[in-house]
Design a protein that fits this description.
It holds the Pfam family SusD-like_3. The protein is mainly α. The protein has 18 helices and seven strands. The longest helix has 26 residues.
Length: 506
């Protein structure tokens, strides 16, 4: 078995304390400054790793920000897939009734920009280092620009035009500047340039790295940069470029679908050949709170969980019974509250004695019932994985020439893994295959940070979400173009009035 050194996205701080009766005042032996912080290769690696850490959250023991929980509030909870029964900020998002004071919107914005700030600082300081080789410098800068591209991709998906900060702003900071947001096209141009550079620099993997000591899975790679760039081209509807890049990722020959959908998300399966770029965790070192947020309420095995990010029954019922992915939900169980938790037979039905009709259903994707029942867990979160490559190439090929044999085969590879009903090319048109692709992306990639962007790219955000809201008796609240992007957080607008929320939900 190949052994991996998993890149853990956390900064470990070890402090030794000593005291006596006569001297309790701390003695400062050194200060970390901009003059002494970037002197060695180890300093550069520490700065690089700190930027990876921003994908998770602010501190070890409190990792539930950005890509390890809260980002899903914006990407999935605001669609036909996600549901939250709690009031307040998540409830607003679940019913598509948010405003600029929503705390989850503000927190995601803040945490993503923290990654941007850390990346810019690392790029600026590493660029000036004299103690590392040109090859080492190129490697570190490529990793940082890849991570910054992830952040700006997420920012522009959520808010559209955003303030564009780069390493140049580290050199000449103007803390009082009220900078207007840059058009999405300008941000895309930066990401495209950065990712093209990263593709040329980053290795396929780190098995033969002379910079890092072992195969550090979880770091940015050539395949990850290729696919992230392909996804930007998909968003721009540059179909040929997206098709070409996804083919290049496939031709690397190092990625493949994991044998089972359930096994892919098990806590023990930290890394496999389907992973292209993921946020990795270790329950004993820097665990996340995915299990807490996704786990089912009153469950007899996974106890004391919140079912904060759940799935709509509407979405669950859309799966075919033959689909293995439909088995990945806590649909019925005897709760510790003495009640049988299950789906209502019809909307608004009154539960008989001893039964609780659940308003939504918990997924096993990040709540493995066979995993460790701990407060902090070691689940991975896949930002980029191979199934998405296959579906993305199929999408690009369909837009270029309709449902070709290759395009249909790519989707059927994903379906076949879960024993879902396969598509028949002869029964498809470009329009019906487009609809099937969007549905398949939902079934395969729910709560992986893709749903809202997919619905918008396919031009179906208002149609599908409003139809879902109508079916469950809620107000059809989605209005385009108003709801294409989230409002800038109120606190940010107060600081910088050039972040204008006119025309967005206020």
């Amino acid at each position: 078995m190949k052994k991996y050194n998993i890149l853990l996205l956390a900064a470990a701080v070890i402090t030794q304390f000593s005291c006596n009766k006569t001297n309790l005042e701390p003695k400062i032996y050194s200060n970390l400054t901009s003059q002494n912080a970037f002197l060695t290769k180890s300093d550069a690696i520490a700065a690089v790793n700190a930027v990876y850490a921003r994908l998770k959250g602010p501190a070890v023991g409190d990792n539930f920000d950005y890509w390890t929980v809260r980002h899903f509030a914006l990407t999935d909870l605001t669609t036909d897939v996600g549901h939250c029964s709690y009031a307040g900020d998540p409830g607003q998002l679940s019913l598509v009734q948010w405003n600029s004071a929503n705390g989850l919107i503000a927190e995601d914005y803040r945490q993503i920009y923290k990654l941007v700030a850390n990346a810019n600082n690392a790029i600026y300081n590493i660029s000036g280092m004299k103690s590392i080789t040109d090859a080492q410098k190129s490697q570190f800068l490529a990793e940082m620009k890849f991570l910054r591209a992830i952040a700006y991709s997420d920012l522009t998906d959520a808010w559209g035009p955003v303030i564009l900060n780069t390493e140049k702003d580290v050199a000449n900071p103007d803390y009082k500047a009220q900078t207007p947001p840059s058009p999405v096209a300008d941000v895309d141009a930066l990401m495209i340039t950065d990712l093209q550079n990263a593709i040329n620099v980053l290795p396929v993997d780190y098995t033969k790295s002379d910079i890092y000591t072992t195969n550090d899975v979880g770091r940015a790679t050539k395949g990850a940069a290729m696919f992230l760039l392909a996804k930007i081209y998909l968003r721009e509807h540059q179909w040929q470029k997206a098709a070409d890049l996804t083919k290049q990722v496939m031709d690397l020959g190092i990625y493949q679908l994991y044998p089972s959908y359930e096994g892919l998300f098990k806590e023990t399966n930290t890394w496999c050949s389907e992973n292209i770029f993921s946020v990795l965790s270790d329950a004993n070192v820097n665990g996340t709170e995915l299990l807490n947020h996704f786990g089912p309420l009153s469950h007899p095995v996974l106890t004391d969980r919140w079912q904060y990010y759940a799935v709509t029954w509407d979405f669950y019922n859309s799966y075919g019974d033959e689909d293995d992915r439909k088995k990945m939900f806590f649909t019925q169980y005897q709760g510790v509250d003495g009640l049988t938790h299950k789906q209502a037979p019809s909307l608004g039905a009154t539960a008989p004695d001893g039964v609780l009709y659940m308003p939504d259903v918990a997924t096993m994707k990040y709540a493995d019932p066979n995993g460790a029942n701990t407060y902090y867990d070691g689940h991975s979160v896949d930002i980029l994985r191979y199934a998405d490559v296959l579906l993305s190439r199929a999408e690009a090929l369909n837009e270029l020439g309709g449902p070709t044999a290759e395009a249909v085969s790519l989707v059927n590879q994903v379906k076949g893994r879960s024993h879902a009903k396969l598509l028949v090319q002869a029964n498809l048109t470009q329009a019906t295959f487009r609809d099937a692709l969007l549905q398949e992306r939902g079934w395969e990639l729910y709560y992986e940070g893709k749903r809202r962007a997919d619905l918008k790219r396919f031009g179906k955000y208002d149609v599908i979400v409003n139809a879902y809201l109508k079916r469950i008796g809620q107000t059809n609240t989605v209005q385009l173009p108003r709801d294409e992007y989230f409002p800038y957080p109120l606190a940010q607008v107060t600081i910088n009035p050039k972040l204008n929320n006119a025309g967005r939900q206020q």
